[in-house]
């Protein structure tokens, strides 16, 4: 039976990939778990345990080959498959996301941006011109994107997601300030809540201030 990898390990893989990519860009070809732990501020034991969930990629006393480790993590995360995505919602968040996200360097390709506001049709965002949402069904049929990024108002998110599922989309990155979930087992949704990150940051500030007050 194939070993099931915990969600916490999966959640750490993108961070490993980011650091390994930066290390490779710096011209380093090999790194030990100890040196990687120093850069990432996690224990070397944690790094070895996490990577061993996928068979391990290093040798004792020899460390990790950066190029091989990066390509291995790419395969685990599916970044080598060239998945295509569409963005639905070209408001402030949608446009910022489209312009600033390096899709290709993360294994994805943005192939279309859609909005229901007729005034936005034809407006250029990054390398794309916004298309009318009324064109999305035909576009999906012709181009078959694997995922949709939702940056629509929260009251519209579920309806849009359900419509796109009907057109064949099975994976969603949801920025719509609402928690989406679907009963269908073959539909995957990643809900992104920027406000949650702000609140976690706020908690850490309070915790630090409380500790400072106790010391004083």
Key structural traits:
three-stranded antiparallel beta sheet; 2 domains; 8 helices; six-stranded parallel beta sheet; 216 residues
Walk me through what this model shows.
This protein has 216 residues and is an alpha/beta fold. It has 2 domains: 7-77, Arc Repressor Mutant, subunit A; 82-195, Rossmann fold. Helices cover 46% and strands 18% of the residues. The chain contains 8 helices and 11 strands. It has helices at 7-25, 33-40, 44-52, 66-77, 92-100, 136-143, 154-166, 194-215; strands at 30-31, 58-59, 63-65, 83-88, 108-115, 124-125, 128-129, 131-132, 147-150, 171-174, 188-191. Strands 8-5-4-9-10-11 form a 6-stranded parallel β-sheet, with helices on one face. Strand 4 (83-88), helix 5 (92-100) and strand 5 (108-115) form a beta-alpha-beta unit. Helix 1 (7-25) packs across helix 4 (66-77) and helix 2 (33-40) crosses helix 3. The relative contact order is 0.09.
Structural category is: alpha/beta
Number of domain modules: 2
- Number of helical runs? 8
Q: Can you name the CATH architecture of the largest domain?
A: 3-Layer(aba) Sandwich
pLDDT < 50 runs, ≥5 residues: none
Shape: globular
Could you give the distance between the termini? Answer: 56 Å
CATH superfamily assignment of the largest domain?
Answer: NAD(P)-binding Rossmann-like Domain
User: How would a crystallographer describe the biggest sheet?
Assistant: 6 strands, parallel
**What is the C-level CATH assignment of the largest domain?**
Alpha Beta
Listing every helix as H and every strand as E from the N terminus to the C terminus, the arrangement reads HEHHEEHEHEEEEHEHEEH
- Percent of residues in helices comes to 40-55%
Q: CATH topology of the largest domain, what is it called?
A: Rossmann fold
- What share of residues are in beta strands? 15-25%
> How many strands in all?
11
Radius of gyration: 21 Å
Mean pLDDT value: 89
Strand order across the biggest sheet?
8-5-4-9-10-11
